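Suppose a colleague, Dr. K., hands you the sequence of a protein chain of 117 amino acids and asks what its three-dimensional shape might be. Before reaching for any lab equipment, you can write down a predicted structure in token form. Begin with the sequence itself:
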Amino acid sequence: MTRAIFAVGVCALAVAGVAAAQGTQAGRPALTVTDMRPFEVRGAGFEPNERVQVLLAMNGAQRWRSTVASASGVFTVEFRGVSLGVCSRFTMQAVGSKGSRARILPRRLQIDCVSPD
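The predicted structure, expressed as tokens, is then:
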């Protein structure tokens, strides 16, 4: 009986450990485009109150914005004067002062765009 209780306890701890690890993965820093005109991006999963530098690179130009993540690790940054179409190619990166990092690799927002290349 004691061994059965011990085995159940070990299994419960293992399940709790897996759930905790999955919760950590879900909280990884990420960027999401929320608006196109003006161009706006939302960051989530950053450290609370972390200072964040956000870089938008497109058409050979770079634009920087600075912000501070909320207590829940979320921020929104607007790039005024920048409007991208769904076929515009861009890269985005956010780097936090506490080590958080997220990026959007070179991409277009719409998959069925025809490339002039």
